[in-house]
């Protein structure tokens, strides 16, 4: 697959014709990161937009006790660290590859310089970005009105969609496996609850569904149940 086609696989650029995208595509650089490799360090200068093509990345904040708090996990077709790049501020957290990862990267000066010179490209990107922003606003609203269990359901729905892999379970039915060894403390950080709350929810889910914990991560055994929890009012 050539570079332009690879870029058009990304949601942000998918509706832009190849000839319109070509001036920008020239500046994209593919990069590979090995599992465990650091993509950037907290406090480093943020000057490059990064779009994930393969693999998974975690963004973490180091604590005073030497541990780390996971702020987010990102997978294929997601941009990582873009707010710091856009605002021209140092990265507020560090990022590491959870597995072998491939990204497409472009320096902010090339990105903005090119779209300023090509009006058609700017219009197409603005339209796509507005659509993505509307989706982000909708999700933020959902999170603001959600209770803790709803947020947990939304978290696993996101993981299922972005990094999950369909698997056949022991009962013969299909599930979604999330190969992500998160601790209960990690889950608590991601949905902003106490660890005891995360333990209670995950223990109940492990017995009743919709998500089971295993040695390699989690398996979503009943996605409709996740949706029902996420949309519940109680």
In summary, what is this structure?
With 234 residues, the protein is α+β, with helices and mostly antiparallel strands. It is 44% helix and 25% strand. The strands form three sheets. It has a four-stranded antiparallel β-sheet. Strands 2-7-4-5 form a four-stranded antiparallel β-sheet. It has a four-stranded antiparallel β-sheet with strand order 9-10-12-11.
List the helices and strands and how they pair.
Elements: H1 3-8, H2 18-25, E1 29-33, E2 38-40, E3 48-54, E4 57-62, E5 68-74, E6 79-80, H3 82-87, E7 94-97, E8 101-107, H4 108-117, H5 119-145, H6 148-162, E9 165-168, E10 174-178, H7 184-191, H8 195-208, E11 211-214, E12 217-220, H9 223-231
Antiparallel strand pairs: 1-8, 2-7, 3-6, 3-8, 4-5, 4-7, 9-10, 10-12, 11-12
Helix pairs in contact: 6-9, 7-8
Q: Could you characterize what this model shows?
A:
With 234 residues, this protein is of the alpha+beta class. The protein folds into 2 domains: 3-141, Jelly Rolls (Sandwich); 147-231, Orthogonal Bundle (Arc Repressor Mutant, subunit A), CATH 1.10.10.10. It is 44% helix and 25% strand. It contains 9 helices and 12 strands. The chain has helices at residues 3-8, 18-25, 82-87, 108-117, 119-145, 148-162, 184-191, 195-208, 223-231; strands at residues 29-33, 38-40, 48-54, 57-62, 68-74, 79-80, 94-97, 101-107, 165-168, 174-178, 211-214, 217-220. The strands form 3 sheets. It has a 4-stranded antiparallel beta sheet. Strands 2-7-4-5 form a 4-stranded antiparallel beta sheet. Strands 9-10-12-11 form a 4-stranded antiparallel beta sheet. Strand 9 and strand 10 form a beta hairpin. Helix 6 (148-162) crosses helix 9 (223-231) and helix 7 crosses helix 8. The radius of gyration is 19 Å and the shape is globular.
